[in-house]
Each structure stands twice: as C-alpha cells, then as structure tokens.
C-alpha cells in the first residue's frame, strides 16, 4: 500500500443528564501502565512532616500530570527515565506543603469546600451505579435488541452482523434508555414517595422556602431546590400572569417535570449509597485526591494569586518583544505532485521550470500511482490537488521549505519516506499581526503565571524551613533504572 501525503487534509429523567467526567478518569491507575509493575511493594520516597510520598503515590502523580510521557506501548521505566524525577518530587513536596498549610488554615472546614466534596462523591457514586446497572448490561447486543430498535423506528429489522459501528451505537443508546426507564420505575415501586401538592401552587413562594414539597423514603425535597431546578422564569411568568392560561399550564408542566427529575435523582442517589459505592476503595482513593486538588487550588487562590499584579507596561513590553509569535495562523494553498522514482521527480521538475502545466503533470502522475496501487492491491492515497493547510500543521521538515516559497513558486523534489514530492504554493493567507487588545488578557495571564510560580517558590521555601522534609535519594534513584 502506498502511503498518503505528508500534508494533512483539512477537514427517563435525570438519569439521562450528561455526567461531567467520564468514569475512565476515576480509574487512571488501573487503566494506565505501571512504571514499577515489577516492584514487589511500594517504598517511601519522601517524608513531609506527618505525610509520606511512596513509589505508588509517585507513579499515580506521574500518570496524572505526565500522561503524554506514559503512552501505551512504551517501556514504562524508559518513560520514567526521560523525566526529571528529582524536580518532579520537589514539586510534589511543595504541593503537599501547601495542602498541609491549607488544612492548618482551616480551608478544609469551609462550607463551600465540604459541599464540593459531597457533590463529587455523589457524582462518582451515581456514575458507578449507571455503569453497573445500565452501561455494562447494554454493552452486549442481541438480535432482539436490533429488532426492537428498528421496529420502534418503523423500519424492517436488519441482521446484527450487517450493522455499521454508528448504527450499533444507536441501538446501544436505545437499549440504555430503555434499561434506565425500567430501572427507575423499579426504584419508584420500592420507594415511599410523598408529594405536598398544596405547597407548589404558588411557585414564587418556593424561591427561598425550606419547606418540603416532596419526600422520598423520608428524605425531603425543599421548595427552594425545586425552584432552582425549574429556574425562575416559569415562576415569574406564572405569577405575573403573562400569557394567561397557557403560561400557567407551561409553568405547571415545568414544575411537574422538575419535581420528577428531583425525585428520580434522589432515588438513584439513595440507591448508590445503599449499595455501598461510597465505601469502595477506588472511590475513597479518588476522593482523597479530589480533596487535595481542591485544597491546593483554594490555597493558591487565597495566598498566591492576590500577590500577583501585572502592570500595563509589562504587557505592552511583552507584546513588543514577542510580536512575531502573536500573529494569525498562516495558511497556504498547496498543489503537489508525488512520484516514487527520483529520476522521474527531477524530470518533472525540469519540465515545470520550462513552463509545463503543473495540473496536467500532477494528473498524469496520480494516474500512475493509482495504477501501481491497483496492481499491489492497495490504495494510492491522495497524490495531488489543491488544499488549504495551516503551516504549523505541516511536517516540521517541510515548514521552512513552504514558508520560503512565494505564491506561484515551485519547490525542488523533496524526499519523504519512499516518495518524492514537488509542491507549488498557489496562495498564502493569514500571518497578520494580532492587535494588542485582542491578546492583552492572554499576555496578562502568561505573565501572571510566571509571577505566581515565583511567589509559590518563595512560599514553599519558607514552609520547608519550618517543616520536616526528607527525600530517600536511593529509592528515587531506583525509579530511573
């Protein structure tokens, strides 16, 4: 098979609410390659006051912050060796010191912090419940599932083996929806649900109400929670009488749907906790990491960010000194001719220099490549033709060549792999200087980030001076072999 061109081508209720993070993010340790899979047990790499960093901790942090260095198929020890582990451990120590200081300051007792933890734990438990009860049972499709899908759509059933990947996905989503509805109905049958109809007659009165409008297995749904769920618009419209009876009917429907979502959400949450998802080891581990992430972020916002001030003259100076990199994306419209033979490539180049038509020679050469590909039983790929492409997306070894060509100019043959290319730049577009005001915020953030790192470094130095920090250099060194 002849390879393609080196220039890329341009090209039931609350249960169904989208989850913010895929479940795969919860299990990064299980799904990523382990650097020290050959090690029999975890060793202590560093001590920070009463906290430890083990080799297992270090592996997890590497996988979180250096996933680009840990691609599947790489030799994991070699990937670790390419990192400056000593610097990474120092950064991790500073992070631990900031988290410890955040706890000392009582940031882990803040009401907003505790609410964020509760929300995250609920989200994870609900996602685990969805995976176990809906996603996994839907992963295996039967002919009956396919028949049900097509009959519901008013079409004749088709064979499971004849469906495309996209069609299988549609059938699977349909099965998930049906399982979701059935599961929620099952929960409702087992539940004790009370609805206090008289308390939802006046929608605007729900805005700040702490009175229950419904009760699910003894757990209250408050009026203000319902008001927040449906939004203020429906209540205000109904209260003002705008639209008359239609507005009232719409408001009533929104209340009914909103209350249904809250009831179903409550049932699912109760079920998830009753099944013990919150007590799972992987959930506890995730929550520990999540708690530390929030504490680190809040500490940074409270003690470091306020100390960073960027002056207007600094932004302007940065703009002047980096003006060449602050330009719009440079696009080029390219024609190309491809050949497998260097002699043919240079012969074509000479003909072009003598005035031969580029498009005619390109078509001839493409026909030859197609014939060769047909004989080999493969595909020729795209050998010629006009296309717009960002210079930054072109292979690095070609970028300077394309940039040096003016509009209408032709390059000498260039070898890439087993092929030879001749390029013609038909037109260039973009590359204009971006006005300062359009990038002022971006520059300010970049300068602020640099200052923040300096402030954080100095703060970490002071915390280290009053803390007990020790690094086991021997254990750390073993990670790099």
Give a structural overview.
The chain has 481 residues and is an alpha+beta fold. It has 17 helices and ten strands. Strands 7-6-9-8 form a four-stranded antiparallel beta sheet. Strand 8 (414-416) and strand 9 form a beta hairpin. The longest helix has 30 residues, at 245-274. The chain is extended, with a radius of gyration of 31 Å.
Roughly how many Å apart are the termini?
A: 40 Å
The largest sheet, given as strand count, sense and whether it forms a barrel, is:
4 strands, antiparallel
Structural class, please?
A: alpha+beta
Mean pLDDT, nearest integer?
A: 83
Query: What oligomeric state is this?
Result: single chain
The number of distinct helices, counting runs of at least 4 residues, comes to 17
Portion of residues in beta strands equals 5-15%
Rg (C-alpha, Å)? 31 Å
Strand order of the largest sheet: 7-6-9-8
Order of SSEs, N→C? HEEHHHHHHEEEHHHHHEHHEHEEHEH
Please give the number of β-strands. 10
What overall geometry do the principal axes of the alpha carbons give? extended
Helical content (DSSP H or I, runs of 4+): 40-55%
Low-confidence stretches: 1-40, 68-81, 377-385
């Amino acid at each position: 098979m002849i390879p393609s061109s080196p220039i890329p081508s341009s090209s039931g209720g609350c249960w169904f609410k989208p989850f913010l993070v895929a479940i795969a993010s919860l299990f990064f340790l299980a799904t990523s390659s382990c650097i020290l899979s050959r090690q029999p047990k975890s060793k202590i790499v560093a001590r920070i006051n009463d906290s430890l960093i083990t080799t297992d901790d270090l592996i997890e942090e590497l996988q979180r912050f250096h996933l680009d260095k840990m691609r599947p198929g790489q030799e994991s020890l070699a990937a670790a060796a390419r990192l400056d582990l000593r610097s990474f451990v120092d950064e991790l120590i500073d992070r631990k010191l900031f988290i410890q200081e955040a706890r000392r300051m009582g940031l882990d007792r803040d009401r907003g912090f505790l609410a964020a933890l509760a929300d995250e734990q609920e989200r994870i438990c609900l996602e685990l419940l969805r995976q176990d009860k809906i996603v996994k049972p839907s992963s295996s499709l039967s002919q009956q599932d396919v028949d049900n899908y097509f009959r519901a759509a008013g079409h004749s059933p088709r064979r499971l083996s004849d469906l495309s990947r996209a069609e299988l996905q549609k059938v699977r989503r349909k099965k998930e929806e049906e399982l979701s509805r059935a599961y929620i109905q099952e929960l409702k049958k087992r539940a004790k649900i009370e609805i206090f109809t008289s308390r939802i007659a006046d929608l605007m009165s729900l805005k700040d109400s702490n009175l229950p409008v419904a009760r699910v297995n003894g757990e209250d749904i408050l009026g203000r929670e319902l008001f927040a769920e449906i939004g203020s618009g429906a209540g205000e419209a109904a209260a003002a009488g705008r639209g008359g009876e239609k507005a009232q009917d719409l408001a009533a429907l929104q209340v009914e749907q909103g209350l249904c979502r809250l009831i179903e959400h409550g049932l699912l949450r109760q079920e998830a906790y009753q099944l013990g998802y919150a007590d799972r080891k992987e959930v506890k581990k995730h929550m520990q990491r999540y708690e530390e992430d929030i504490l680190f972020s809040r500490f940074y916002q409270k003690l470091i960010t306020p100390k960073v001030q960027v002056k207007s003259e600094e932004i302007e100076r940065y703009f002047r000194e980096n003006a060449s990199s602050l330009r719009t994306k440079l696009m080029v419209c390219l024609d190309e001719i491809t050949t497998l033979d260097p002699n043919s490539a240079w012969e074509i180049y000479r003909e072009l220099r003598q005035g031969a038509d580029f498009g005619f020679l390109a078509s001839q050469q493409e026909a030859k490549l197609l014939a060769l590909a047909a004989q080999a039983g493969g595909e020729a790929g795209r050998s010629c033709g006009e296309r717009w492409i960002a210079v930054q997306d072109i292979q690095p070894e070609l970028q300077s060549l394309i940039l040096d060509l003016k509009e209408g100019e032709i390059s000498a043959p260039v070898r890439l792999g087993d092929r030879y290319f001749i390029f013609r730049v038909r037109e260039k577009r973009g590359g204009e200087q971006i006005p300062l005001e359009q990038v002022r915020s971006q520059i300010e953030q970049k300068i602020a980030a640099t200052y923040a790192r300096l402030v954080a470094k100095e703060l970490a130095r002071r915390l280290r001076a009053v803390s007990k920090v020790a690094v086991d250099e021997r254990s750390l060194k073993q990670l790099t072999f």
